[in-house]
Amino acid sequence: MRHDSDKKESILRNSGVQTILASLLCIILGLLVGYVVLLIINPGGAGKAILAIIKNFLYYPSAAAAKKYFGTTLVKASALLMCSLSVLFAYKVGLFNIGAAGQYVVGVGACLYLALACGMPWYVCLIAAVLVAAAAGGLSGALKAYFNVNEVISCIMLNWIGLYCVNMLLSQVKEQSTPYTKSLSSTNKNALLPNVGLDGLFSNNEFVTLGLLLSVVMAVLVWVVLEKTRFGYELKATGMNKQAAKYCGMREKRNIILTMMIAGGLAGFGAGIFYLTGIEQWMVQQTSVPAMGFNGIAAAFLGGLNPVGTIFSSYFIQHITSGGTYVDKTMYCTQISDLISAFIIYLCGFVLFFKLWLNRFLDKREEREIRTEQKGGEA
Predict the structure, then answer these.
(1) Of 154, 176, 307, 335, which residue is most buried, by most CB within 10 angstroms?
(2) Is residue 59 packed enough to be buried (19+ CB in 10 Å), middle (13-18) or exposed (0-12)?
(3) 302 and 317 in contact (C-beta within 8 Å)?
(4) Rounded to 5 degrees, what are φ and ψ at 254?
(5) Which CA distances in Å does 213 have to 54, 82, 145, 218, 289?
(6) Is 148 exposed, middle or buried (0-12, 13-18, 19+ CB in 10 A)?
(7) pLDDT of residue 269
(8) Nearest Cα to 336, choosing from 316, 322, 315?
(9) Residues with Cβ < 8 Å from 110, sequence gap 6 or more?
(10) DSSP-assigned beta bridge partners for residue 174
(11) Is residue 247 classed exposed, middle or buried when 0-12, 13-18 and 19+ CB atoms within 10 A define those classes?
(12) What number of CA atoms fall less than 13 Å from residue 132's CA on the CB side?
C-alpha cells in the first residue's frame, strides 16, 4: 500500500502532470464561467449555446460534413499553433513577443503578393513569408539588444506599421469589386500547398494540406532546439541573465536578435501554411491585426509553455473559437467563445499557484503518513 501511495505521489509531483492537471482545471472553470455569462445574457438558450461551442463540427448530423469541418478546424489550429510557438520560443528566452500578430501579418503580405502578383510557386511564397516575418521580429530584437527598447512596446508599434503596409501592398492584387485579394485557386494554383492525400481523410476538404503536418513537425523541432541543443541552452541562459551569459562568453545581443527572428519566422510560417491553402482571402481594408497572433498567447500558456503541449492547447482554443459560430445569433454574439478563451487564459495565470498548492498538499499528506507509521512502530 505504501509503495502504491509513493508511486501515485511521485506521478503527481511530476511538473508535466501538474501542468496538464492545471490546464484541465483552467478549461473546466473557463467553460463554467462562460456558461454563467450565457445564463446572465439569456438563460433560455444557455445550455444549447455552451453545447454548440463544445461540439463545434459535431454540430452536423452527417459524419461526412463533420469530418470536413473537423479538417477546417485543424487547418486553422495549425496556424494558431505556429503563433503560439512564436510566443513560446521568445518567452523561454525571457522575451514577450506580443508582436506575433504583426509578424503573422507581414508573412501574409509576403506570401500572397508573391503568389498573386509574381506567380511564384508555394514553396517560394512560404519561404518568403518566413524570411520577411523573421526580419520584422529581428527588428524588435535589435531594438531590444542595442537600445534596450522594451520588446512589448516595439512589437505593438510594428504590429500596426506592418498591418497598414500589408494593406497597401495587397491593394495591388485585390479583386476590383471587393476589398478582398484575388483567389489563389483562380489566379495561381501553383501557389496552393499540396494536399498529399490528406484531403481524402476529411471528406475531400481541399484546404487540408501539407501545412498541417509541417506545423506538428515544427512544434517537435522547437522542443528539440530548446531542450536538447547547446544553442537552445545558450538562448535560455541569455534570457535568464544577460550579464551572466555575457561573462560566460555567450553573445547576448546576437542571441536576443536570433530569438526574435526565429519567433517572427514561426509566426510567418503560420501565415504561409494558412493562406496558401486558399481557405481565406485577405481584406485590404482591415483596421485591426488578426486575432490569430493574440490567441497564440492563450494557447502558449494553456499548453504550459511546452511546444508539444501547445499542439493540443492550440487545437482546443481553435475548437471553441470555431464552435462560437454555431451559437444562435438571435440570442448571443459569436464572440462569446472568445470571451471563454479570455477567461481560460486569465485562469492560466494561476497555474503556478495550483502547483504550489498541490505540492504543499502532497507534503502534508506525506508528513501525516510518516507520523502514522512512526506511531505504529512504537506500538
Answers:
(1) 307
(2) middle
(3) yes
(4) -60, -40
(5) 25, 12, 34, 9, 26
(6) exposed
(7) 98
(8) 322
(9) 125, 128, 129, 131, 132, 133, 268
(10) 181
(11) exposed
(12) 27
- Whether residue 89 contacts residue 231, with contact meaning beta carbons closer than 8 Å, is answered with no
Q: Output the DSSP codes for 170-236.
A: HGGGB-SSSSBBPPHHHH-GGGSPP-TTGGGGGTS-TT--HHHHHHHHHHHHHHHHHHHSHHHHHHH
Which residue, among 112, 117, 276, 126, has the nearest Cα to 193 in the 3D structure?
A: 276
Q: Which three cell numbers stand for residue 245?
A: 551569459
Give the span between the Cα atoms of 113 and 129, in whole angstroms.
10
Pairwise CA distance, residues 196 & 216, whole Å:
15
Picking from 337, 231, 346, the residue whose alpha carbon sits closest to that of residue 291 is: 337
Q: Is 249 left (phi over 0), alpha (psi -120 to 50) or beta?
A: left
Structural contact between residues 248 and 242, judged by C-beta atoms closer than 8 angstroms:
no
Q: Does residue 304 come out as left (phi exceeding 0), alpha (psi in the -120 to 50 range) or beta? A: left
Q: Which residue ranges make up each domain of the chain? A: 2-378
- Amino acid, res. 247: Y
Q: What pLDDT sits at residue 57?
A: 83
Q: Chunked in runs of 10, what are the mean pLDDT values of the chain (379 residues)?
A: 54 80 86 92 91 86 91 96 97 94 98 98 98 98 95 96 97 95 96 96 96 97 95 88 80 92 98 98 94 88 90 92 86 81 77 79 84 71
The C-alpha cell 532546439 sits at: 225
pLDDT in the model for residue 228: 95
Distance, in Å, from the CA atom of 243 to the CA atom of 328, rounded to the nearest integer, reads: 56
Give the number of residues written for the chain.
Answer: 379
Residue tagged 506580443 (cell numbers):
98
Tell me if the domain spanning 2-378 has CATH number 1.10.3470: yes
Provide the grid cell at 176.
476590383
Q: What is the reported pTM?
A: 0.91
Determine the straight-line distance between the first and last CA of the chain, rounded to whole angstroms. Answer: 20
Cell of 67: 469530418
